[in-house]
Design goal:
The complex is a heterodimer of chains A (156) and B (350). With 156 residues, chain A is α+β, with helices and mostly antiparallel strands. Chain A has six helices and five strands, in the order αβαβαβαββαα. In chain A, strand 4 and strand 5 form a beta hairpin. Chain A is globular. The chains are: A alpha+beta (156), B alpha+beta (350).
Chain lengths: 156, 350
Amino acid sequence: MSGIYQDMVRALAGLLLVSLVWPGMAQDLLMARSKQSFPEAMSALQNAIIKRGYRISRIQRVDVGLTKAKYKTDKYRVVFFGKADEVKEIARRHPDFIPYLPLKMSIFAEGEQTLVVAMNPEKWTEFYASPWLAAYFKRWTRDYHLILRELTDEKP
Amino acid sequence: MRYGAGLLFLLLAMTGFSAEKGKLLYQRHCAACHGDRGAGGVGVPLALESFQSSITDRYLFNTIRYGRPGRVMPAFKRMTDEQINAIVRYVRSFTPHRKLVLSSAPVRGNAGAGKQLYRKHCAACHGLDGEGGKGTGVTFSRPRDLPIIAPALANSGFLRATTDQMIKTTLMRGRQGTPMQSFLKKGLSEQQINDIVAYVRSFEKAVKRKAAEKRVHLAKGHRQPIIKVKSGYDMATTISNLQKAIAASNYKLIRTQPLEQGLVQKGRENRRQTILYFCNFNQLNTALAIDPRVGLFLPCRLTVVETGKGVYIYAINPSRLAELYNNDRLSRICGAMRDTYLSIIEEATL
């Protein structure tokens, strides 16, 4: 069978598949399991965040604090990120949203693999009625999905 | 002819499609918790032969549809039946297993006698009232007593998905490769096992009562997404009052920083938006053991913001965010955290 047909049909099937898997089944927490070990997944996460145009503002080393306080834990970090102009604008127009800024994702080791967890920005539409903010939520949701997808090897 | 070949190919692609779809749906919605091929994680393992041989497809379907309220496992309410069936087929492909054929007849037993047996043989793992073991699945991120956490039995999702005969099968056979043993082998008679099944069924009443209490609790002001309190003091005094109140409440102040730190050039940050991070490591450790994902909202944080209208103290509302985790134990801790936030703020704004 000719290669071009095969490619076309595959592309079509792929498209159909994506549309079937996606339909608004939002979970409140977005999660991704990476097959990489913690240090590799950590740098992949930071790169994926930066690639979407954000700046990493801080990395909270939760495990280090816990270990110092004599608790046992595996690697656990929280990555904070944002865009300066975005944060400024939202803080000015919607100070009520400040408690959720900057954006963040947590990342922790699970055996040889790594989990990344984030609040689904779509969830904020239930918290804040503002259409102005909703535009941000929508974009962040898309960015979060793209970021998390870089960590799994899911290829639709 | 050419069209024929294309059509044929489309058909072929469509048959492989359902399997492919189940896999994709599983990867997107389940793998983060249950592992890529069901090895377990935040969720319990799904690939064990002993598990697969003691449940029906219907059980899998209903577990996905109704979840396990209050026990991390989400309900996938918006999936179509077809999507859930695709996931069920994919989960079934993890391990070769025996097909379980069971009658739908209820198991008759004495729930009173079952209660005594339950307390003796089951409560240590599944909880005195069937609330399930502490923590989640087989998460490796912290130390734990059992390799797999015992699921909740007094749970509307579990009771709805399972049948009497399925519970009985699990008790008779156990689940090899997990801490759940065969109670026939451990010396209980079939009648005693029937009594326990009757007792587990009787959890349904307690479950309904609990759900009603939860609705009342949610109606009582735990729904706001944030806490916001006006301070009568200026920015600097408010911050210093908060620092004192945090220390007085047995928390360690981690740092005080501008909201914009790390986002704009150092020294250029807007000082009228200041974050205070603080922590109680014992509390942090407890919360992470219940669900490691809760670290997303820890350590504790208060933000002081000066606007044209005055100085305000902001916090997330832990009670509202608890809803993201579907975990009753965590919800209780979050309720306590909300009280802590409120009392610290109150002390600082007196």
